């Protein structure tokens, strides 16, 4: 089995402007923002942990017209957005819809603040998409690990693996944050301990992991101690404790 994280071929990078068509509070701390319409007709999704970069401009910002990736970049010296990377939870090319899930943590980040108050008709500007993780078809089983910020990717990866043997562990704040997914829900601070004691299937796993930096480092060392090849465990850092994020 390859020890490198497999990626789909990169799609052409482009800037999209699309309206919010609905919002939903999935859990007390997670909001789902659905954008759609003909503006995203040509968006090509690759599934799994594919992400885009949200461009969050201040209200009333003097944006260049037409707003394209090139004109947005050229204007950054005078009008610079907050830029945050978000995984696509769901892309429906038939309905022309894209779902983004936001972990809400008050007004401590521009994306969280925007998502908490988003309404249908608001405009979302985003750039991408990124290449997506390609689960190794030769793996004996698949191990997915993360926290709330990794849930969109974990859900998307699981949908790409029908019939596969999957063990998924997701750390959350409390039971109210559980969603209708076939994963092992883990209380905050217990992720490493749970993984250390978990029963694993036989064979070599394909590992995908993402979350808080130190937790992911500890997860990696735990998996290596359990016999997983070090080169196959390359967690992504989605955020760092004590640092303002989204």
Automatic annotation (TrEMBL):
Gene3D superfamilies: Nucleotide-binding domain of ferredoxin-NADP reductase (FNR) module, Translation factors. Pfam families: FAD_binding_9, SIP. InterPro entries: FAD-bd_FR_type, FNR_nucleotide-bd, Riboflavin_synthase-like_b-brl, SIP_FAD-bd, SIP_fam, SIP_rossman_dom. Transmembrane segments: none annotated. Coiled coil: none annotated. Residues 13-136 form the FAD-binding FR-type domain. PANTHER family: FERRIC REDUCTASE, NADPH-DEPENDENT, NADPH-DEPENDENT FERRIC-CHELATE REDUCTASE. This is NADPH-dependent ferric siderophore reductase.
